[in-house]
Amino acid sequence: MSVFRSILFVLAAAGALSLAAQVKDPDGSPVDKLRAAARKGDPDAQNKLGYEYFYGVGRRLDYTVAAYWYRQAAKQGNPAALLNLAICYDRGFGVKESPYLAFQNYRQAADKGAELAKYNLALIYLNGIPAETYNDEKFPPITPDRERAIELLEELIKNNFAKGKYGRAALYLNKPLPERKPEETARAFKLLSEASGSGDTDAMRMLADCYYGGWGCEKDDKKMLFWLERAVAGQDREAMAKLGFCYETGEGVEPDPEKAYKYFREAALRKQSMAMVKMADYCASGMYTPIDLTKSVEWLESAIKSNPRNHFALFKLGVYAAEGIGIEKDEKLAFRMFHQAADFGNTHAQFNVAVYLKKGEAVPMDPGGAFYWFKRAAEAGDNRAQYELGLCYMNSFGTPKNERLAIEWLRKAAANGNADAIRLLGI
């Protein structure tokens, strides 16, 4: 689910020392007390040494060496090291990325009581992971298990773990409005209030959403802004982007375009995908920054890298490729970008894909494909697609001729203001 993500957080070593077999040190740095204990096999020392390499605390930052020491400690069942090694596999820090190996280590850490591991494990059960091959070893897929995910989140709530409260509340509030139950929305608000009081910035941001929409509480723009600002103070990039939107549109505040730019830029520098799209717009328009179409393209590419499902960025990059804006004109690239955006539900991209397939210029003509995408966009309310869909039915293009449906869609297009449909129907 889109509101969830694994948390990048590495626990410091803790617990009593226990020496095991000596291990080979991969680093040639001078021996110190911590390194000596780690070499002798102490799991807490190994985990702490990994931590220092991971963050560059008193040592050079080296993810590969960090992952090595986490692995040594994890082999001995150290909960913190199991969690840290899971995060390395989850994000590809110092090791080849492997969702399945991350899952295995999260599960072992969770079994030993590591609360953050339980939370990240819940995320995996919510979304599942595909089968993978890792260094010639085949791992099976993990199918989504919503009930197990909820069990883990409820366990965390009992332990007063803020992230668990946020995760459970998000599951309630991710439901479409008509499907939300008042008692669930009320509980979500209560959990978010508790988690926000504990300093969780994700909860603060979602609590702001509650005050914005009146979910489980009275609508209150001042409280919305209060919690967004608290989340921004905690360096939450999503909150920065939302605050930028508020100042851009005047939601709950006096419009302030300069402040909007400031918040969007801060969020974009922290790789918030939609904020990067906004920065692309700023670079293209020259507002608060010099016009730089090449930089605009770079922001869009970065937005897609940060979130491959960002259909706004995909669509805009498609437009740039189609028009030769900031990059060489490339209709085939444009089609690929539009197609990806269309797959993720972008109505404008769906219409553009249909047009490409109807014309058959940059890509082969495909009447059936054109009909499919015109229909998707028409059903989403695009009056151009509604008009074209009517013509498809009228002219048996990609579908059998059906005059009744042709007139029906042409009338919908006309009612939605499509000038071609109005002229054709003589309205």
Overall description:
The protein is an all-alpha fold and 427 residues long. It is 65% helix and 1% strand. The chain contains 22 helices and 2 strands. The chain has helices at residues 33-39, 43-55, 63-75, 79-91, 99-111, 115-127, 146-158, 162-173, 182-197, 201-213, 221-233, 237-249, 257-269, 273-285, 293-306, 311-323, 331-343, 347-359, 367-379, 383-395, 403-415, 419-425, and strands at residues 132-134, 137-139. A two-stranded antiparallel sheet has the order 1-2. A hairpin with a 2-residue loop joins strand 1 and strand 2 (137-139). Helix 9 packs across helix 10, helix 16 runs antiparallel to helix 17 (331-343) and helix 18 (347-359) runs antiparallel to helix 19 (367-379). The longest helix is centred in the middle third of the chain and has 16 residues, at 182-197. It is globular and about 85 Å long. The two termini are 46 Å apart.
